[in-house]
Amino acid sequence: MGTVLPSVPGLDINGLIYRYRTVKNTEDAMKVHVSNLKAQGGGYIFRETDDWSGVPGNRITKSFALGNISGANWGNGSISVEGTGSVEDAVVVYSYRVDACYDPQLNPDCVGYIKPSPPIAEVYDLMEDELALSVLDSDTNFKYDQDGNRIVDDEEEEQETRLEMGLTASANALTMLRVEGQSAIIDAINLNTSLATYYNSSINGGTYADGYALADATLPDSARGLRNNLAQQLLHEEMVQMQYGE
């Protein structure tokens, strides 16, 4: 069945349909066997027999629902004739599905799934590392006293002292250079902002006399203005009288 069914893990056969046509004489005895062998061991995993004895040739179609039989259990299939007659236009169709839980570990929702345990990390043992032990046994190791303080020999102490003095001298030189640079910058700013040039400056000026004078010292009242004022006064008095009902 490897050439008929897909080669997929977890494949189950859940149905089978076959169809064929018989060619025979009515009086002849004839049986047709549709079967599949078991993949392992003897016997059949499926077998159906149609008895055509005493009946004329005809077409037949049958379907079967199967209980999800694993595809790995299905062997070769065949249609055989017992008696007199023949079979033509034979077709066998297998209905299948893929069981997602054929291996429960593939899906946490499957029955029988076991949550895998996390891998155990390997513990590194320094005392079993030959390279590390060789370094620990070398002459370049530091020595420590009973309090855990490192013991420094005279030569190493002298080197550290010279290094500290060199670093101190470099720091002092950088500090002096930095101060001198700041002073020069301040002096340059003071030169650019000197106000001495503005003290001796003068602005041209003088006395500007009036160039206009009135020919007449008094201005006559405007007759038009008087008429407007009078009209407004009369209107005001009229409104007041209306208010008091006079």
Q: Give the terminus-to-terminus CA distance.
A: 129 Å
Number of helices: 4
Residues in helix, %: 25-40%
Q: What's the alpha carbon Rg, rounded to whole Å?
A: 60 Å
Q: How would the blueprint of this fold be written?
A:
Layout: E1 11-23, E2 30-38, E3 44-51, E4 59-70, E5 74-83, E6 86-98, H1 130-136, E7 143-144, E8 150-151, H2 154-192, H3 196-199, H4 223-244
Antiparallel strand pairs: 1-4, 1-6, 2-3, 2-5, 7-8
Description:
This protein is of the alpha+beta class and 246 residues long. Among the domains are: 11-104, no CATH class; 150-192. It has 4 helices and 8 strands; from the N terminus they run ββββββαββααα. The protein has helices spanning 130-136, 154-192, 196-199, 223-244; strands at residues 11-23, 30-38, 44-51, 59-70, 74-83, 86-98, 143-144, 150-151. The strands form 3 sheets. Strands 4-1-6 form a 3-stranded antiparallel β-sheet, with no helix packed on it. The chain has a 3-stranded antiparallel β-sheet with strand order 3-2-5, with no helix packed on it. A hairpin with a 5-residue loop joins β2 and β3. The chain is flat and about 160 Å long. The N and C termini lie far apart (129 Å). 6% of the residues are buried. The mean pLDDT is 79.
